[in-house]
């Protein structure tokens, strides 16, 4: 198993909506805000294909066997469709947004902290899911969500999803923690051995904890924080900083830290927990009682696509059961296509990653991009935009 996900946080919110916003109900539901994207139309039919498709993707999503001979789902696509794949790996959501603005790319595997920006700016076009046959087998709770649709219009097809978990050393952390309090209010018990995800989006993890433990703050959505709520989350993270031994972005370093004992508790992904355990670390990971944050990625088509037919062919290919299973296992996330679970090499894979566990995903607040018009629907206050999250993260880490 190899993990290749890089930091997902956008480096700035300046590119985000200047005159529009979208509401969000994480884990399900329709947008509640006023996002009004340009009036773009999805195609009603496809042609024979243009012979090429240019993709922007997270590392590990578009594999042709050159990095790992066992990971190749591009060659089969090229042979079947005649569309030659040209792909560029992006290191952040901000880079994806900038690349999509060039008009040089046909599709992108956007996370929730980029997808709404692409929709609002008119860089992503609506997607006619009728032209993506494998879409019908996508888990229902991934369809028409706040990060991949607006007002009943789909702007992409789901790729996969994952949760941010609490991992701990079973020998040094007792009793087994069931709350994020172990890394926030109770972090001093593990001073110097706490690890946290190195990204401004981690502020949402603190907000999610405060939502449950300080209800007087009135937090409804961890990505929609007014100044008072934001200040409380930042204060909590500054307090936590005194106990943090390392902020991680490289999964191999996190595995190494848990194996050596330098880290004994902190945030992680399921694939990291699996890898650490397989290498001898005595660890377990779970979603605490407050729930957790997570990601859900969406393949979106550029409004300026030069090869739209091949882009749609790619969307359908990456959602096909066998390919979606390959990507999910290689990357380390739950597949989007329900039929992919029968195609995984590890027959317990979907159970491990909770692929079909609707109740599990209802506990996950999927990444979204904070904007001034609060995502929780409030109109009487302004929320703190992501640019200020970035500034605050620098202060938090000192």
Structural account:
- The protein has 398 residues and is an alpha/beta fold.
- The chain has a domain at 162-293 and 379-397: D-Maltodextrin-Binding Protein, domain 2 (3-Layer(aba) Sandwich), CATH 3.40.190.
- It is built from twelve helices and 14 strands.
- It has helices at residues 74-81, 93-101, 112-120, 203-213, 227-241, 251-260, 270-278, 308-319, 321-331, 349-352, 358-361, 386-397, and strands at residues 52-57, 84-89, 107-110, 124-125, 149-150, 153-154, 157-169, 194-197, 244-248, 265-269, 283-286, 292-302, 334-335, 364-366.
- A hairpin with a 2-residue loop joins strand 5 and strand 6.
CATH top level assignment of the domain at 162-293 and 379-397: Alpha Beta
Classification by helices and strands: alpha/beta
What is the level-2 CATH architecture name of the domain at 162-293 and 379-397? 3-Layer(aba) Sandwich
Q: Which oligomeric form is depicted?
A: single chain
Extract low-pLDDT stretches. Answer: 1-33
Distance between the termini: 34 Å
Q: Secondary-structure element sequence?
A: EHEHEHEEEEEHHEHEHEEHHEHHEH
The CATH topology of the domain at 162-293 and 379-397: D-Maltodextrin-Binding Protein, domain 2
Write the layout of secondary structure elements.
Blueprint: E1 52-57, H1 74-81, E2 84-89, H2 93-101, E3 107-110, H3 112-120, E4 124-125, E5 149-150, E6 153-154, E7 157-169, E8 194-197, H4 203-213, H5 227-241, E9 244-248, H6 251-260, E10 265-269, H7 270-278, E11 283-286, E12 292-302, H8 308-319, H9 321-331, E13 334-335, H10 349-352, H11 358-361, E14 364-366, H12 386-397
Parallel strand pairs: 1-2, 1-3, 8-9, 8-10, 12-14
Antiparallel strand pairs: 3-12, 4-12, 5-6, 7-10, 7-11, 7-12, 7-13
